[in-house]
Amino acid sequence: MNILLAFLLLANWLLPTPPTLPTALQQNISITSVGQLGGSSYAIALNGNRAYFDLGTRLVIADIGDPSTPTILGQTAPLNGRINDIAVSGEYVYLAGGTHLYVVNVSNPALPVQSARVAAGGDASFVTLSGGYAYVSGGQRVQVFALDDPALPVRVATFDGDTVLNGAGKVTVSGTLAYVPGGFNRGLVTLDISDPANPTAVGGYPWTPNNSTHRVQISGGYAYIAGSFDLQVAQLTDPQNPQKIADFSISDTGVALDLLVDGDTLYLPLDTTGVSILDISNPASPQAIGLLERGFSPPYTLALAGSHLFVASIMGGVRIADVSAPASPAYTNAFRSIGRGRNLTFVGDSMYMTEGGRGLWIIERAKINEGLGSARFVDLGNAALDITLSGHYAFVAGGNAGVTILDVTQPVTPTVVATFDTPGSAWQVVVVDNYAYVADYDGGLRVLDISNIAVPVEVGFLPPPTQFVDVTAVSASADFVFMYAGTKLHILSIANNPAAPTQVGVYSSGLHLSNVIAEGTTIYLSEGFDTYRLLVLDISNPGQPTEIGSHPMASRIFNPSVWEIAKEGDRVAVAFGYDGLLVFDVSTPAAPKQIGSYPTAWEAAGVMLQSDSIAVGNGDGGLLMLRMADLFNFYLPGLRK
């Protein structure tokens, strides 16, 4: 190492100018994660006095010895992908995530350590532990892993169910049989696992067309099966081929993605109404006896500890309910979390991020890895879709709640100074001098005079361009407002009268358009329909916006989405939905070049750049902090002659 360093120093001294690297090498960057906070919860498992659940891409461990006052014990570092399901055995927790099975050693709950990440050989949507084996299901397969060494699973078998599995659900083991929900338009598959290294289909359970099986639980000689439109009960007189004895319709109350049986009581989480509580003392005739209200967040999966039900919520972390009186269950506590992270902005050393569900999160950047206790939630009483900073005020577009204005002079303790209820649904807001322009969906474009910040006044508006086209995005420069409606970008002049924007040009584009970044007569945006691109337009003649540069954005999913772009210096970052984050070099606007990407696990919705930092509103993944670094720098300019 010392010889190599001496050689580099000598070469650096002798070279009269820095060596010229190939363009592609000069411009490539690495993007690494430096922090993740919050996120939705899709999985939970209990073991003794501990609860294990996901927040975004972290596993969180909590003490639930007293369910009325649970406490967080520790959390893992962010994993490489989302967590779909959790199973626990002794000192090890097994996580099904993406296409891998993760193993985490939790012998020290304050410092859980990932001990293995094993390729699952397909989709890893669920994991079930039984008899020294892990059954990992998803897609059209069930993978079997031996746990002779619990820290290092070894795959010993694969069941390919390409004709009977279409989004396989969670495996349920009963003796030497395993029941596998088949997914979309499928019933149950019964596997003989007397030899786990050779799982064999020996029977099943049919399903009705246009329905799906998601979960199954075996109890007292019956199989309880949750589907898209109903709960079915099947008798196990012939265990290999369950026979239906009851059909409880849920088509009017939501889709059930899980179920939990406890004696004569069945808990059924429904995405639109909450957790339905059923009496199954007569399995042939389930009866609804209670409902745990949905609240602001759909329930997803359940766990039970005594009379306390733990509900992993898509947008709300984990909520805890007292179900000792099934007819009147009630939430008593929660591990509140960031759900559906969206747009964000930097405010000094803090970040403000809107939560699609209810309000605004404030996070001190230095504390991003310390957990949700270091973050502050500002409940705005409705959706928070977009945020814009102007001076020491933050403007939040809140859907049907209109626009909320906060004084952020003290970033960690902002105060609401005004609200304005627009007639439509406020999707985005931008500020130019003393005016705020609001993309108000079916309310068109609204113009607010904010010269008296405490009393905003509407002074102008533009209706939607046509009856069935809504205004969903707005950006601005010193002289123009850029309004996105339908598939068109409308260029509006505010140079003469900011209160009365005048259309001077239109750019017809793809189905999806992001916000616009304007620098002089050059604007940057992204579009997508049949193809997805970063676009650079020249608006020196705003009546004829001209494309001067573009770069394709490759998608790996069906029907991708483009959310937001950000720019600093010569770099543009694009939040590209479930495709993650893309970074471009636009030092030559006519020839943008992609120089980096990052798979965000969840849906990249909002993005901000500051120096080498990237902040991403990561949908169900909460807040994600990334860092950019040049990959190549072979010379040492500070030591040149």
State the strand order across the main sheet. Answer: 16-19-20-21-22
Q: According to CATH, what is the class of the domain at 38-335?
A: Mainly Beta
Mean pLDDT: 88
**What oligomeric arrangement do these chains adopt?**
single chain
What is the strand content? over 45%
Secondary structure layout plus pairing:
Blueprint: H1 2-14, H2 23-27, E1 29-37, E2 44-47, E3 50-55, E4 58-63, E5 71-75, E6 85-89, E7 92-97, E8 100-105, E9 113-119, E10 126-130, E11 133-138, E12 141-146, E13 154-160, E14 172-174, E15 177-181, E16 183-184, E17 188-192, E18 200-205, E19 212-219, E20 222-227, E21 230-235, E22 243-249, E23 260-262, E24 265-270, E25 274-279, E26 287-293, E27 299-305, E28 308-313, E29 317-322, E30 330-335, E31 341-347, E32 350-355, E33 359-364, E34 375-379, E35 386-390, E36 393-397, E37 403-407, E38 415-420, E39 428-432, E40 435-439, E41 445-449, E42 457-462, E43 471-476, E44 480-485, E45 488-493, E46 502-508, E47 512-513, E48 517-519, E49 522-528, E50 532-538, E51 546-552, E52 564-568, E53 571-575, E54 581-585, E55 593-598, E56 606-610, E57 613-617, E58 623-630
Antiparallel strand pairs: 1-58, 2-3, 3-4, 4-5, 6-7, 7-8, 8-9, 10-11, 11-12, 12-13, 14-15, 15-17, 16-19, 17-18, 19-20, 20-21, 21-22, 23-24, 24-25, 25-26, 27-28, 28-29, 29-30, 31-32, 32-33, 33-34, 35-36, 36-37, 37-38, 39-40, 40-41, 41-42, 43-44, 44-45, 45-46, 47-49, 48-49, 49-50, 50-51, 52-53, ...
